[in-house]
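Below: protein 1.
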Amino acid sequence: MFLLYEYEIFWAFLIISSVIPILAFFISGILAPLRKGPEKLSSYESGIEPMGNAWLQFRIRYYMFALVFVVFDVETVFLYPWAMSFDVLGVSVFIEAFIFVLILIVGLVYAWRKGALEWS
């Protein structure tokens, strides 16, 4: 049977983690100074006038390189729990991890052949 009192810690954590950012935004909105001037409305507040247009186009290759890095970096984090409990879980989990690594290698080879790892 589903018992709600078993989840009291979860609900307390959820409420506290929701209230703290809301309070932080509310308090900073009250305490922040409201002085607006021409320096505050400029593009940069460093005191140097901006040169050129602020809209620059970046090549998509940089975003693809970063995306491939993040994907493979996050996916390797999933290997850590398998490595820490390898002796307890047995051979079936080793086969699953091996298939997971093979899928990662296939994705890496695909990205490499498509040129997503080329920086220039």
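Below: protein 2.
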Amino acid sequence: MSTIMTMSAMTIMISTIVMMAATLISKKIHEEREKSSPFECGFDPKNSARLPFSSRFFLIAVIFMIFDVEIALLLPMPITMATSNMKSWMLISSMFLLILILGLYHEWNQGSLEWSN
């Protein structure tokens, strides 16, 4: 029992020494402004946080996420075709694709897919 405790204490001590040595060795003396600041989507974090944000960019990102998730839902459809009733599979698949196409048409008709006017 004491051997296990001794080995555990030695392991913890060695790993602590190695981590401390790595921290001391990796410290850089000269830090640049660009490297020490976090990257936030191209915005300069040193300026005011109250800058106007393009809502078109946000809208395009949301539309991308919605259609990306729908594509992930479409991928298993051919696999489930073999294990399900063909009539119900065809009905569900065509309804899902119809909803997708109608959503895409609506976004296109509203002008949401155009980046610049």
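The chain has a mean pLDDT of 80.
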